[in-house]
Specification:
mainly beta, two-stranded antiparallel sheet, 1 helix, 9% helix, 29% strand, elongated
Length: 148
C-alpha cells in the first residue's frame, strides 16, 4: 500500500537531511551518519545485495571510490513531492587505468567502503563506459530519489 506524499517527504528528510520526523523518528543522537555515499555499479546490486554486490572494482576502474554527500540540506534538497535530489556536483575520481567497466546503476549507501546498507539503487538512463581518462559525475539535481 502506498504512503502519502507527506510521509514520503518525512522519510526522505530523515534519511537524507537527518531531520526528525515529528512524533515518529529522530536521527541517531550518539553517532549519527554525517554522510551518505554514492556508489557505481556494473549491474543492479539487487534487493538482497550489499554495497559491494556488482559494484565497479578498482581492477576495472583504477582510482574508483564511493563519493560522500553530506546528510544535510546542503548535500540533499529538502524533500518535496516525495522526492529529493543532490544539491551539488557529485564527481568521482578520474579513471587512471584498469580493464574498463560499463556503469549501468547507481546506489546510495551508508558506508565509504565495504559492507553497509544499500538505501536506494537505480538504473542509469544510459550506461556509461569508464576507462582511463573518464571521470564519472552527476550534475547538481541530476540524482533524484523518489519514495512511493
Amino acid at each position: 500500500m502506498p504512503k502519502s506524499t507527506e510521509v514520503c517527504n518525512y522519510l526522505l528528510a530523515l534519511i537524507f537531511n537527518a531531520t526528525t520526523w515529528p512524533n515518529m523518528a529522530q536521527n541517531a543522537t550518539v553517532s549519527p551518519l554525517t554522510n551518505l555515499y554514492v556508489a557505481l555499479y556494473t549491474a543492479d546490486p539487487g534487493i538482497g545485495g550489499d554495497p559491494r554486490t556488482n559494484e565497479v572494482t578498482t581492477g576495472a576502474y583504477t582510482g574508483y571510490a564511493r563519493q560522500a554527500v553530506a546528510r544535510t540540506d546542503v548535500g540533499w534538497d529538502t524533500p518535496s513531492g516525495g522526492s529529493t535530489k543532490n544539491n551539488s556536483l557529485i564527481q568521482f575520481p578520474e579513471c587512471s587505468g584498469g580493464t574498463g567497466a560499463t556503469i549501468s546503476h547507481v546506489a546510495i549507501v551508508t558506508t565509504a567502503s565495504g559492507d553497509g546498507d544499500v538505501l536506494y539503487a537505480g538504473e542509469l538512463s544510459s550506461p556509461r563506459a569508464v576507462s582511463a581518462g573518464i571521470q564519472p559525475q552527476f550534475a547538481a539535481e541530476a540524482l533524484v530519489v523518489t519514495e512511493t
